[in-house]
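Input.
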Amino acid sequence: MLLKKVTLTISLGLLLSIPLQAAPSINDMQSCQGLLDFIDKKLDKAPAKYSTEDIKNIREGLKGYNEYIQEEIVTPGLIKFNNGDSSKASMMQKQVDMYKLSLVNAYEKKYPANRLYTDYAVAVNNCAKKAVPKGASLEKLKISLNTIIKLAKMN
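Output.
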């Protein structure tokens, strides 16, 4: 029964956050991308009891969300910050990528076990409250989060 409550909260949280949010910051979104990269890396070593289909669903939703963040927030934000200078924005993107890698390493120290935790879904949901994808990307993200919760409950 707890699973249904958590799933409902995440679904409603994503839906209700859309009209209330200001433009997300690049800093917040690069932190979210670091989290998404970490979860994707965790899936490389997922326990055998996690089905291939579940892992595929998680990856698909998180990949789409990561692409949305990059294409709609980070890249345009860096270009705007650099007054349209794409080469400066590209250099800043390298700094963003290094920061994301440092976050992945920090998450690996905090969560060394090869399994998924509900914390991951909650953290991604908090990111989605700041930057909500639309349409099929949103639906795939919801499936991804609910699948993370399902698999975390198996442990």
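DSSP finds six helices and no strands in the chain.
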